[in-house]
# Entry
Amino acid sequence: VFNDPVLNSLVDMAYQQNLPLQIAVLRILEARAQLGIAIGNQYPQQQQVGGSATKNRASENSPNFSPGIDKNFMDYQAGFDASWEIDFWGRYQRGIEAADANLSASVADYQNALVSLTAETARTYVIIRTLEERLVIAHDNIKLQEESLRIAQVRFNNGATTELDVQQAVSNLSETRAQVPALQQELRQAKNGLSILLGKPPSELTDVLGGSGTIPAVPAHVAVGVPAELLRRRPDVQLAEMQAASRSAQIGVARTELYPRFSLVGSIGNGTSVTNSSSAGDLFDSDSLQYFAGPTFQCNILNYGRFKKNVRVQDARYQQTIVS
# Structure
């Protein structure tokens, strides 16, 4: 709404090159990958194909050693292992909810950074144009006050006035001249701040800013919509909401630690050893098949209230995000 092409180009440069904004983008990519990991946990968590070839030597002093067997032999294994913890209590589903909320929060964080970056770029640009205008006014005032001093000096020399008028003119001129270095320093600081926002060296801003420009004019009215809708569009509010949603899901994850876990495990493969009765070539024979499969469960006991306390920890963190 300022209709300032230079300001528009500066905001575009900040959007393209600002380093904190690039970090916010990378956080979105990280959160998206974390969501993919959480979704993958719904399926068999362990799926491995493996094999081994080991050289073994049996101890002649072991209780099961027989003089008739080979004490030196090779052992070959090849197979597939799988393990699937069933999401009986919604542990992984709540984890997906938390990761999805974190992804939405990272997007809101990026949008919040973008809003702040745009506002700060515009604010700094207005400061630069204001300081440039103040410098122009200061130089014009210096010229006027130099002329006033000359007139006061002539009138004093001709006896028309007292020396007080001359001293007053000198004082006014000195004060105005003293403003120029301070304004120039503030202008340099503002341009350095803008260069940080744009991720550019200050020397490269000269061509972009050009000469002294006008201060952007604010329109009398700006359409922002219904105030309540404006509040909902604020990315920092959306960020806080998604952080609360993620914390809420973490409570569910913590609560599942109170209940037993049920899993299906299994392994299938072939194995053989190079002994008097078998060789490496027997690895893929039907007689070399070996497997196991079945359900398992585990339940945490005697945890001395640690898991219940963890639920309370997550709930307290959730309440903190609600207050935020």
In short: Strands lie at 46-57, 72-86, 261-274, 289-298. The chain has a mean pLDDT of 90. The first strand starts at residue 46 and ends at 57. Residues 4 and 216 are 7 Å apart (CA to CA).
